[in-house]
Each structure stands twice: as structure tokens, then as C-alpha cells.
Design a protein that fits this description.
It is built from ten helices and twelve strands. By secondary structure, it is an alpha/beta fold. Helix 3 runs parallel beside helix 4, helix 4 runs parallel beside helix 5 and helix 7 packs across helix 8.
Length: 306
């Protein structure tokens, strides 16, 4: 009888596991974005992220800003080399940030290169910014071809709300949702960045409310935080800044909205009093980066992996 009870109990637990998986209650992916390691080469960044204990990494590239991942990396040969390094370090990648301006005539070919690169890496999502409203007509032409290519590659394009600029096509979670809804493709979604929503709006948008507009149309979330200092703003550990991540993460758990998350801490950037993001001269020591990222990672994990 005792053996029978154990069998029944085991079957019940297995069924619960399947139900939890179906409902999206399995542990969500928490990645660390390599932009935290600006000033260091990509190999050093990946080796350090592995020391933190994270299982996933998001490679980060923004034209004109980043140096760890460069334009030259976007090739099949490079992706194979990076995959080998990821495997050796016990890391995986579900998303790639490879930002370009989607309103230019070259954008389709540029994004295809990044999707090809991401496919070889094994990612499911390629994130990019969009561009200004002045280029909207070109964006509309581009996005149809991009959506078709993304579908053929089974890769989702995550359109990210910007950190700065003016008169952008996407300005918030609300306008991002409107853009994605209009495109009406399963392969064009939002990558909502909490910190960007704050800086782009010059502090007028509260990301803890704005993200809810984006969530039904989102495929990925960027976690970024900031603190005010005397002469401006600095980027902060997740949960130690002005974004109410206690509330946000608790709501995500309660509502079973377990999208992939990426921790993006911009150590060599700061913002002026009016929230214009600028690059500092020098990267901090690796142990400082690692300590802060680990604290952010453990903070997020406490909410989601319990």
C-alpha cells in the first residue's frame, strides 16, 4: 500500500510539473547583458559572467556606443567561435541585443545579418531600437520584409523603447504596444526597457505603470535601474534605484508573466540632471562589476526562482 501511495504521489507531482510548465510557471530565464563590461573584450566579459553563476547571457551591441561586441562579430564564423566559448563556460543565450536604426534603407540587410548571427548562436529573440518618426515611411517598408525574414528563421524581433532622442516612433510602453499591434506579426514584439522609459521621458514616465501597457505585446524585458546624485544620475543595481522592481517583479510572479529578463547595468555611463545619457572615461574594476551584477542577479532570482 505504501508503494502504491508513493507511485500515486509521484504521478501527481509529475502532473503538477506539467501543469506548471503549461501555465508558464517554470523558472524564467534571467540573462546578464554584456554591456555591463564596456571597456573589456567579449571573452573577458563572458568569463566574468560565468563566475557570477548566471546560466544565460545577452550579447549587447549598439552602433556608435559599444566595443565588446562589434560589427565585425556578425558573421557565422564568429558566432561559431562565440558558441564554443559559451559552451566551455556553461552559458547559453536566448536573446541578442544588436541595435540599429530601422528607418534607414540599409536596415533590412543589416538586421538580416544580426538574425543570421543570432540563429547560429541559438537565440530566439533579436532586440533592436527603431528610430525617429521622420523615417516612419521607410520603417513601414522595412518592417514587412523584416517580419517575413524573422518568420522564416523562427526568430522574434524585439523592438526596444529608446533611452534618448526626440520624436521617436516608440516613446513608451503605450506607443510601443500601438506600433506592434499595427504591425500584427507574431514575429515582431516589444523588448521593454524599464530604465529607458524613465530616461527618454525625462523622468515623467513611471516604468512600474508604463510596462503594463507593453506587456501583452512584449517578448523580452530589460531590467535597468538608476539613482540620482548631486550632478546627475548613475545606473544602479537592480532594486537599489528609482524603478520599483519590488512591485514589478512581484506583479510578474502573481500574474504568471514570465518573459525572459535581462539585467543591463551600464557601468561606464551616467546621465546629466536632465537625463541625457553620457559615456564616462573609464570602466570600473572587474570585481566591482561582478559584485554589483551578482547582487542584481540574486535580487531578481529571489522573486522569480522560488
Amino acid at each position: 500500500m505504501q508503494t502504491h501511495d508513493k507511485i500515486v504521489k509521484g504521478a501527481a507531482e509529475g502532473l503538477k510539473g506539467k501543469v506548471r510548465e503549461k501555465e508558464g510557471l517554470m523558472n524564467p530565464v534571467i540573462s546578464i547583458n554584456t554591456l555591463a563590461y564596456e571597456g573589456y573584450d567579449l571573452t573577458t566579459a563572458l568569463q566574468d559572467i560565468a563566475k557570477i553563476g548566471a546560466s544565460h547571457v545577452e550579447l549587447g551591441y549598439t552602433r556608435g556606443w559599444t566595443e565588446g561586441l562589434t560589427e565585425e562579430h556578425f558573421s557565422e564564423a564568429s558566432a561559431v567561435d562565440i558558441n564554443r566559448l559559451l559552451s566551455d563556460l556553461g552559458l547559453s543565450s536566448i536573446a541578442l541585443s544588436a541595435h540599429i536604426d530601422l528607418t534607414t534603407e540599409d536596415a533590412v540587410d543589416e538586421l538580416k545579418r544580426r538574425i543570421d548571427f543570432g540563429k547560429t548562436l541559438g537565440v530566439k529573440i533579436v532586440n533592436t531600437k527603431v528610430g525617429a518618426k521622420s523615417g516612419y515611411s521607410q520603417f513601414e517598408k522595412n518592417i514587412e520584409a523584416m517580419a517575413d525574414f524573422a518568420e522564416s528563421m523562427n526568430i522574434i524581433i524585439g523592438l526596444e523603447n529608446p533611452s534618448e532622442g526626440s520624436d521617436q516612433i516608440i516613446t513608451s510602453g503605450k506607443t510601443g504596444a500601438e506600433v506592434v499591434k499595427h504591425i500584427d506579426s507574431d514575429f515582431i514584439k516589444l523588448n521593454y526597457d524599464f530604465g529607458n522609459a524613465f530616461t527618454y521621458s525625462k523622468g515623467e514616465i513611471d516604468p512600474a505603470f508604463d510596462y503594463k501597457e507593453a506587456l501583452p505585446y512584449a517578448c523580452h524585458l530589460h531590467l535597468k535601474d538608476m539613482n540620482k546624485i548631486d550632478d546627475g544620475w548613475v545606473f544602479a543595481q537592480i532594486g537599489q534605484g528609482i524603478v520599483n522592481y519590488d512591485l514589478i517583479l512581484r506583479e510578474l510572479v502573481e500574474n504568471k508573466n514570465f518573459l525572459p529578463l535581462s539585467i543591463e547595468h551600464l557601468f561606464i555611463y551616467r546621465a546629466t540632471k536632465d537625463l541625457i545619457v553620457q559615456r564616462k572615461a573609464k570602466a570600473p574594476e572587474l570585481n566591482q562589476i561582478r559584485r554589483s551584477l551578482k547582487a542584481s542577479y540574486e535580487y531578481v532570482k529571489r522573486f522569480l526562482h522560488n
